């Protein structure tokens, strides 16, 4: 074999190798360039792409029984949007290929096993060949046509009396192809195709598939039975009669044709009208043609209108109830009614409008309750969830997302899998109706659409609570379901940057504290996991793993002994266990519940540079640093978009969960090498700077000109990196880190040039100052820059961020304290600028020298004399030196104060000592203690946030040699159990103190209980009204008596 398969498949192949050829087994698990791997122990299905060899999808909501009545069958639709899966039971499930979520499940109760599954009619129907239950009928094959997207979702059965598919019973083959009504079956035993069915048989496939599309026998020409002014279109202001036609002899079913709507109303048992169907149009009808069958209670309506915008004539036909899609048309009507919400005038019309909206909502609820799979399949085909979102019906959305999940979805189906109604999508149905006859097949990627979540976000008006609530409901629904399958979050991934604004910030924080962001587990084949890294991860807080499940291509040049040793190990592993289920072939990891979080859109980077030769890449890197390729935010990955927005707002709370921390850790592994290289270049530049300026060593110790050339080259290179970053970031570039980067390199280069040219001439005092002073400040900046560059390491970054956080917290207090110092310094300057004006003479020292032992020596008196106009003798004669002298009071230096015996000076000094030394200095110490504790608690997020900023810078750079980690669809990680427990407790506390908006919506609509329908409620109200009437009549009769 050329491939190394996943362990569970490899074990089966090794077993088959002992008995039979494994070709048949491999054929059974391959479908359209995909390899499917079933894991019975962990109840999952993996799908590997045979072109990229990567694991593309994992299906979780499946049921794999240990005992089956047939082999598993996989069938991918023609346009690659759906997967039909049969696991050996009598149930077939439909899954979305874009996210792996299950859409619907159909149980074939009379089937013993399924022989073949295929999509037909442009993926609109499912062709299923089954063998009936052996206890009832012997060797009877049935053809089942499952109408996936019709309103009734019927399964039409035709018994194969002509034995068209009898050959499929004798073989494990399930490969069936359709072309021009010819069915071809492939048999691996004989390596040949046979005609399982062809047009020369007695029954044509076209008749089988379309047998339900029959015309009714009795028709009547359209005529209006009754015309009267009924406000079924309350937005119509002009008085106009609408057409009403009865569809039954009892006249309980009414067909109402208005200007832009077609409505079918039915009277229930209490003579109340119930809406059974509604169809809406944007333009007024120009012609109407009706045919109906009263006995069958159906009609055929042909409508035509003119599109005023496109100047086109359009026609549409409605065949109710056989071919009309009641649910789809009702959802479209909800959006239409919302757009006309401001048109009804008057209280009566507004009341009728609200009643029509309520009846339409009730019609949708009834359809969903009677057939939950109808909603899921219709949403895949017709995108009806978008209509509901645009209609902004929060009660209906609440029912679909949550109440029906509790009433219907939480009840497990026969296979033990929970059913959900709404399925997130990013691609519309790949084949449009008018494109059905087109020969060109469109891939699923060419049909991308706006997801329901992005639609809700983009339709949000500023300050509109209703719109924000819709977004919050979708986030709640997706995140709750993501605990079982990360496929629920793949639309959230792309919407995450759009959620990072003030309108949605509370809901985004609540989302990131959901359990799926810290406890979502995934089973991964152990052969793809680095065990040493795994052990290290269990000891650390969060550790990302470079796990890429894929099919491995074996080395063809492998030696004979190596190949023999691998086979020996596989046989030993197989014989050491008795069954497949006993083999521990997986490792439990945690996964970031955001698929494609780090994947960029197509053509996001410059591909031409990556196609350059190695020599050209090296030459370009030597003479010019890497440039920024990605400038447009639309070309950013969702991960990059999110961290850049957080960096611009200095918001790092979004990283306070294991999943986001794992993403940062995963990306930092690739970015770290680039920034460590930058640190190394800076160190070499600093050493050559010291050599060229004579700060260390002599000129004879190393070649002066060699170090000078290196200094200029590295200085140019580092400066070019800063210029490229400045051009890319623009105003965002200016920050403390970037400013010090630019200032240190620029001043060092200027100092080197200054030293080189001034050393040529004769040295003098002025020249020495021009050299030494810039060197001093350059060295200071280089050391500070070196200290800040050590923030690339986690521990030093902790201290640096702690210091910066403390400075950010106390700088208002420092400014206040400095103003106080200036105030006292200014006051002292006014008092002592010219002390002679106040007749003030400082108290100097006086010394008397007398000697009685030495004759002739005159007694001498020495007195101290002050030059009060010089700052060295009087700090306060100059304003700046006065402020500096007062600042020294804080440090305990009270120089020159004892020389002045003047009461205002004593008052000022005492007040300064009380305010600045006793109060403010101790207050600063106490304040810094509290700030330190807060900074210590938040320093971890600050370090992660800074690394995120570095990653945001690295991600937009060109990568001439590629990235060894790449951008996988899923990011796996592990962490210590202690950290996991702490975060889960923190998240639980946050969720308990920040209640979801959904708890506030419980009052919106609770009338549609599972056991009490609206009709039953109406009947109860009708009976109560009759009882009240009888009681009233009884009271009146008693009163008369």
From TrEMBL:
The keyword Transmembrane applies. The keyword Transmembrane helix applies. Pfam families: Ion_trans. GO terms for biological process: calcium ion import across plasma membrane. Keywords: Membrane, Repeat, Transmembrane, Transmembrane helix. One of its GO terms (molecular function) is monoatomic ion channel activity. It is a multi-pass membrane protein. It comes from the Eukaryota. GO terms for cellular component: plasma membrane. It is found in: Membrane. InterPro entries: Ion_trans_dom, TRPV, WD40/YVTN_repeat-like_dom_sf, WD40_repeat_dom_sf. The chain crosses the membrane at residues 674-696, 702-719, 739-759, 771-789, 810-832, 903-928. Residues 679-937 form the Ion transport domain. Coiled coil: none annotated. Gene3D superfamilies: YVTN repeat-like/Quinoprotein amine dehydrogenase. This is 10063_t:CDS:1.
């Amino acid at each position: 074999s050329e491939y190394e398969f996943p362990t569970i498949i490899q074990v089966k192949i090794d077993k088959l190798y002992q008995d039979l050829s494994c070709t048949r087994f491999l054929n059974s698990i391959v479908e359209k360039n995909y390899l499917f791997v079933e894991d019975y122990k962990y109840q999952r299905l993996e799908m590997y792409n045979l072109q990229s060899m990567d694991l593309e999808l994992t299906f979780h909501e499946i049921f794999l029984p240990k005992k089956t009545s047939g082999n598993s069958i996989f069938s991918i639709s023609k346009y690659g949007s759906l997967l039909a899966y049969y696991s050996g039971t009598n149930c077939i499930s439909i899954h979305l290929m874009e996210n792996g979520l299950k859409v619907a499940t159909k149980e074939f109760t009379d089937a013993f096993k399924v022989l073949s599954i295929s999509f037909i009619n442009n993926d609109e129907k499912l062709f299923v060949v089954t063998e009936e239950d052996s206890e009832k009928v012997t060797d009877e094959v049935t053809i089942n046509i499952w109408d996936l997207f019709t309103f009734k979702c019927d399964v039409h059965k035709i018994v194969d009396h002509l034995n068209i598919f009898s050959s499929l019973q004798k073989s494990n083959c399930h490969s069936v192809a359709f072309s021009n009504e010819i069915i071809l079956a492939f048999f691996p035993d004989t390596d040949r195709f046979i005609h399982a069915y062809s047009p020369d048989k007695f029954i044509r496939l076209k008749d089988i598939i379309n047998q339900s599309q029959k015309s009714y026998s009795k028709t009547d020409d359209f005529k209006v039975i009754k015309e009267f002014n009924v406000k079924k279109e309350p937005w119509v202001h002009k008085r106009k009669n609408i057409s009403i036609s009865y569809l039954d002899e009892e006249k309980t079913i009414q067909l109402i044709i208005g200007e832009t709507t077609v409505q079918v109303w039915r009277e229930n048992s209490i003579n109340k009208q119930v809406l059974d169907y509604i169809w809406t149009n944007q333009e007024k009808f120009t012609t109407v043609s009706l045919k109906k069958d009263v006995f069958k209670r159906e009609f055929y309506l042909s409508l035509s209108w003119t599109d005023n915008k496109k100047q086109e004539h359009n026609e549409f036909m409605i065949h109710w109830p056989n071919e009309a899609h009641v649910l789809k048309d009702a959802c479209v009507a909800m959006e239409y009614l919302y757009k006309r919400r401001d048109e009804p005038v008057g209280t009566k019309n507004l009341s009728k409008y609200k009643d029509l909206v309520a009846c339409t909502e009730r019609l949708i609820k009834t359809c969903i309750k009677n057939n939950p799979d109808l909603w899921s399949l219709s949403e895949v085909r017709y995108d009806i969830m978008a209509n509901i979102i645009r209609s902004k019906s929060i009660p209906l959305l609440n029912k679909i997302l949550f109440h029906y999940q509790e009433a219907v979805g939480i009840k497990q189906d026969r296979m033990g899998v929970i059913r959900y109604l709404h399925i997130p999508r990013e691609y519309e149905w790949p084949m449009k109706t008018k494109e059905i006859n087109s020969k060109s097949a469109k891939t699923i990627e060419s049909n991308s659409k706006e997801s329901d979540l992005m639609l809700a976000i983009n339709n949000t008006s500023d300050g509109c609570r209703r719109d924000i609530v819709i977004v919050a409901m979708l986030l709640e629904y997706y995140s709750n379901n993501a605990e079982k399958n990360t496929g629920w979050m793949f639309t959230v991934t792309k919407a995450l940057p759009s959620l990072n604004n003030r309108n949605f910030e509370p809901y985004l924080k609540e989302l990131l504290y959901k359990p799926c962001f810290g406890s979502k587990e995934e089973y991964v084949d152990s052969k793809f996991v680095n065990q040493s890294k795994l052990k290290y991860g269990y000891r650390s807080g969060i550790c990302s793993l470079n796990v890429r499940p894929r099919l491995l291509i074996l080395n063809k040049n492998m030696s004979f002994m190596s190949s023999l040793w691998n086979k020996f190990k596989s046989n030993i592993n197989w014989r050491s266990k008795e069954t497949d289920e006993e083999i521990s072939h997986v490792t439990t990891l945690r996964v970031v519940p955001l698929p494609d979080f780090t994947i960029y859109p197509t053509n996001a980077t410059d591909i031409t540079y990556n196609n350059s030769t190695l020599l050209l890449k090296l030459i370009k890197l030597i003479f010019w640093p890497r440039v920024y390729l990605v400038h447009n935010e639309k070309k950013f990955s969702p991960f990059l978009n999110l961290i850049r927005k957080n960096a611009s707002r200095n918001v790092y709370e979004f990283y306070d969960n294991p999943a986001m921390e794992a993403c940062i850790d995963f990306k930092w592994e690739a970015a770290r090498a680039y920034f460590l290289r930058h640190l190394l270049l800076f160190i070499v530049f600093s050493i050559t700077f010291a050599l060229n300026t004579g700060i260390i060593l002599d000129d004879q110790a190393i070649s002066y000109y060699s170090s000078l050339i290196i200094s200029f080259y590295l200085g140019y290179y580092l400066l070019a990196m800063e210029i490229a970053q400045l051009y890319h970031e623009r105003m965002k570039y200016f920050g403390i880190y970037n400013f010090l980067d630019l200032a240190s390199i620029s001043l060092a280069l200027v100092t080197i040039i200054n030293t080189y040219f001034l050393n040529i001439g004769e040295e003098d005092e002025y020249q020495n100052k021009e050299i030494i002073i810039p060197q001093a400040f350059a060295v200071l900046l280089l050391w500070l820059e070196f200290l800040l560059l050590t923030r690339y390491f986690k521990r030093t970054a902790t201290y640096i961020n702690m210091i910066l956080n403390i400075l950010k917290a106390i700088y208002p207090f420092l400014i206040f304290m400095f103003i106080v110092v200036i105030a006292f310094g200014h006051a002292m300057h006014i008092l002592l600028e010219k002390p002679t004006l106040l007749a003030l003479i400082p108290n100097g020292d006086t010394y008397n020298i007398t000697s009685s032992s030495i004759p002739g020596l005159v007694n001498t008196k020495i007195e101290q004399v002050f030059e009060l106009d010089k700052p060295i003798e009087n700090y306060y004669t100059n304003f700046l030196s006065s402020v500096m002298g007062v600042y020294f009071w804080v440090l305990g230096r009270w120089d020159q104060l004892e020389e002045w015996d003047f009461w205002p000076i004593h008052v000022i000094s005492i007040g300064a000592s009380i305010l600045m030394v006793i109060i403010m200095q101790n207050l600063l110490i106490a304040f810094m203690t509290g700030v330190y504790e807060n900074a210590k608690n938040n320093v971890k997020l600050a370090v992660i946030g800074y690394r995120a900023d570095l990653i945001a810078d690295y991600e937009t750079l060109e990568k001439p040699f590629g990235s060894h980690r790449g951008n996988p669809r899923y990011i796996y990680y592990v962490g210590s159990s202690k950290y996991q427990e702490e975060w889960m407790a923190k998240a639980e506390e946050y969720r308990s103190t920040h209640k979801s908006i959904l708890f506030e919506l419980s009052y919106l609509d609770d009338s549609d209980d599972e056991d009490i329908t609206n009709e039953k409620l109406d009947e109860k109200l009708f009976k109560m009204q009759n009882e009240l009437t009888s009681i009233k009549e009884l009271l009146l009769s008693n009163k008369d008596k």
